[in-house]
User: What shape does this take?
Amino acid sequence: MPQLHVENVTLTFGGLNALTDVSLTVPEGEIVSIIGPNGAGKTSLLNCVSGFYHPTRGQIRFGEHDLTHAAPNVITGYGVARAFQNLELFRGLSVTENLLLARHTHLRYGLLSSLLYYGRASRQEAQNRAYVEGIIDFMELEEHRAHPVGTLAYGIQKRVEVARALTLAPRLLLLDEPMAGMNVEEKEDMVRFILDIKREHGVTVVLIEHDLGVVMDISDRVYVLDFGQLIAAGTPAQVSADPRVIAAYTGAQELSA
Amino acid sequence: MPASRFTQTGNYRVRYTQDQTIFATYAEQLSLLLLIAALFALPLILPRAWFPYLTQIVIFSVAVIGLNVTTGYTGLINIGQGAFMGVGAYATALAATRLNLPFYLAIPLGGVAGALIGTLVGLPSLRLKYLYLAIATLAFQIIFEWGVGHAPLLEQGGVIKPPTPQAFGVKDSFLNHNVFWYLVSLPVLISLALLWRNVLRTRHGRAMIAVRDNDRAAAAMGIHPGRAKLTAFLIGSFYAGVAGGLFMYFQKGAVIEDYSLGLSVKLLAMAIVGGLGSLPGSFLGPLFIVGLDRGVELLSQSALLGRVTAFAEGVDVASALRPFSFGMAIVLFLMFEPRGLANWWRLTRLYFKRWPFKF
Ligand SMILES: Nc1ncnc2c1ncn2[C@@H]1O[C@H](COP(=O)(O)OP(=O)(O)OP(=O)(O)O)[C@@H](O)[C@H]1O
Ligand SMILES: [Mg+2]
Assistant: This one.
């Protein structure tokens, strides 16, 4: 049963369409990639799904939930997590503290319990910490856990961004260029993490990525955006053979499948 | 259990709950207990003349923790903390005079009144940011002063004198008035500080810090930014209300001049000098500013200043110099130590924490 439905979404900024009549489906348990040249509208689409923008026209549904006009924190509560293209970490806080924040909606105790740090609050916080340490191990961030995020190397910050989204325990994970600016080795690590996330955590993944080699390798399905319009969709093999896709990428990038 | 919990070095934590405790070592725990015991013992050691100032430091610390909750930890500029103290002061005064409640019930009621009004004033924070919110809190400060000045119930801002409190059968005049209120305020400060320290290690405290640092990312974490801000106003103005109730008794009555814009600015000065968003700073700031205040007073009384300055006979030099000295303190700290006295405190502690290593 398909999970995420984007139906005829149009997004307009002062007369200009960032997205025009975009429709796509993301089935449960798949890795679905969205590719396209710079400024094609990929991030805008994620912003619509995660509630930071609201479509001018069209509808977005996730399972039984209508996301079209929902606020970002509500959408996170439905099980949709997002790793940002331009890092949006809490730079002054440590890696552990960043991840602890992602457990917010999973903790259920009131202000009074919080003030007294007794009963529910202390019990849940202990479990909470254990959960976060599990993610830190999984994403191989042990040696960085106590460091303020702002002091870490860019590649590590990117990984923290993904780890934090994973800590939300989402059903759908939106990754906006998680490998941008990484070297080959770091990219290989990230690919391994994404595959493990899908396999071990059973999370559906939407991936935006410019490295077409990676995209064609790990995606179950690929959508291609150009100037805010969907120009192709299908399996990696279908998409890389599509003449419109090749045309859109000529001059900009090589199809290095 | 690690072999030694007396020092940090070589003290490896093997369970997460150990990492979550407030005090990592017995040495830390012990030194805090000793400090608290010493504070309670001060009336036995220090001359009575010190207690007007010590009591002020304790009461202002309560209000400054509250101000730090909104401004320091949540990033909501609040220029109305003095008025929230005033709300608490008047509510306490009314509870004591009209309802004949004893002080230990009237003061918590002042806290509740502060929290109610503070949360209402915080409502615009759902929409407004930065300077706009600062202006909303400033507006409340002005409305409060004007409102009290026109309310017959509140003596139009004149003095409302509560009955002299009795605690456990002991009239406060039996002890010295200032010592009595010092001994009442101190446990209040300690418990409210501990409560806030608890909130900081739970989801509510983390949510406030997240909203301050990056509200987009906070929302992506499932945090409702508006709810976090209102919770901050609720806690922050509860603390202000309690401080106001204590201050009203300490001043032997509620009077509007005590809760003017000047007080709000003074509390902000304390928070900045102490270090915004720091619990130790919430004690160090009031200590510094009350000390500075006293210093200015002494200086202006000394014959030396009278001779070198051109002030005419009878001019109150202290009240002329006071705003100037606060202003200087704020500016100098913002320029040279924006993290406040708390940073010095942190560095000193770090030195002892790493002991016996140098770094
Ligand atoms: N808040 C905004 N206001 C105005 N225009 C915007 C806004 N956000 C995005 N756009 C425009 O929408 C278009 C699509 O931008 P978007 O960031 O979605 O592209 P992208 O595909 O993610 O590109 P990249 O690969 O560079 O990240 C661009 O022309 C951009 O200028
Ligand atoms: Mg983008």
User: Anything to note?
Assistant: The mean pLDDT of chain B is 87.
